[in-house]
Amino acid sequence: MRKKWKYYIDRMLTFALIGILLPLFVTIICQRMRLEEVIYGTYDAMTEAAEREGAGEADAAKIRQIILDEIATEPLAKVDYVEVVDWNTLEPVETVKEPVLVAMAVYIGKTRLIDNFITEK
After folding, report:
1. Using 50, 70 and 90 to split pLDDT, how confident is the model at 8?
2. Pairing with 13, which of 30, 42, 54, 94 sits 20 to 30 Å away (CA)?
3. Dihedral of the CA atoms 71, 88, 57, 51 (nearest 10)?
4. Is the pTM for the entire model greater than 0.70?
5. Does residue 70 contact residue 38 with C-beta atoms inside 8 Å?
6. What stretches of 9-109 adopt beta strand conformation (E)?
7. Residue 48's Cα: distance from chain center in Å?
8. Which of the residue ranges 56-60, 90-94, 113-117 has the most confident prediction, judged by mean pLDDT?
9. Which residues are bridge partners to 78 per DSSP?
10. What CA–CA distance (Å, rounded) separates 104 from 114?
């Protein structure tokens, strides 16, 4: 009889944990999806700006501002950092002459999400 109760208690605890953790995981996944939408929008905005410039956007400050403007369209987003750096040395760059790493951390709600991508001039 004791094993039977232990089995039921274990099952109840398992279902309680699932009930608590599952919504948390769903929330995190949804927030990540929102950040990805912002990042893809940012990449599209950068591509459009590069096409307007002809050979590409050479000013790292303009690239950073394009990204910040795109992130600002998401009401829940709060920027921790957005950096345009040399992808080999991770040193900040002023002009894009070689491939650069665009690194960012953004809060969507209470969750801090980090992403980056490499882009060329």
Report:
1. low
2. 30
3. -90
4. no
5. yes
6. 77-86, 100-108
7. 20
8. 90-94
9. 107
10. 6
